[in-house]
Predict the structure.
Amino acid sequence: MKDSSYTFLICEKFCDYYKPGREEDVCGGYFFIKNFLTHRELDSLIKVFSLNEEKMLEEKLNFLCNQCDFRADGCDFYAGKSSTPCGGYIILSRLYCQIYS
Ligand code: SF4
């Protein structure tokens, strides 16, 4: 189940696939962020590391996708049909990019 404070930061701001009203659907990126960061910490990281910028990590974040219910038949990025991952994936990819480059 989604939490509106995370949904605003992750899905509404970063995810091209977000559909309001489907609050029971949680992807791997959302699940990982919600488990490890408070929404205030996430909000701060987005601002401090300028995560609205376009950069992305080259390597795939398999640890996110491997725990995602959409991986099997609901994610075009995972299936290689799209270059755009979900919002949680984008946030973490940009964060790793900022930290490790
Ligand atoms: S990119 Fe796709 S498979 Fe990976 S975490 Fe996001 S929705 Fe799930």
